Amino acid sequence: MKSVTKKDIVIRVSNETNLTQIDVKKIVQKTLDVILESLERGDTVELRNFGVFKVKTRRGRLGRNPRTGAEVAVPEKKVVVFKPGLVLKHKVK
User: What is the DSSP string of 35-76?
Assistant: First the structure.
């Protein structure tokens, strides 16, 4: 199984659109920046047929230190969750 990097995406889009890799890299980076900024504000990012990125708050809980067995308070935190869209679900199946 291969990992796809941002550079791989840039090269492929560049080859398929006849745009320079520099221009494509700027577009890809700006797209990721907009997604990141939206999530920082707490907005939901919905990419039709791909999926939805959302910030959720995990509530605090009591955890346990695996070394000592002592109970430790785990504070609430915000996490990014992704729910795939229908097209993505069907293509991955």
Answer: HHHHHHTT--EEETTTEEEEEEEEPPEEEE-TTT--EEEEPP
Contact assessment for residue 21 and residue 14, using Cβ atoms and an 8 Å cutoff: yes
pTM score of the predicted model: 0.79
Taking only the tens of pLDDT, the chain with its 93 residues reads 899 999 999 999 999 999 999 999 999 999 999 999 999 999 999 999 999 999 999 999 999 999 999 999 999 999 999 999 999 999 998
Give the position of tokens 């791989």.
Answer: 8
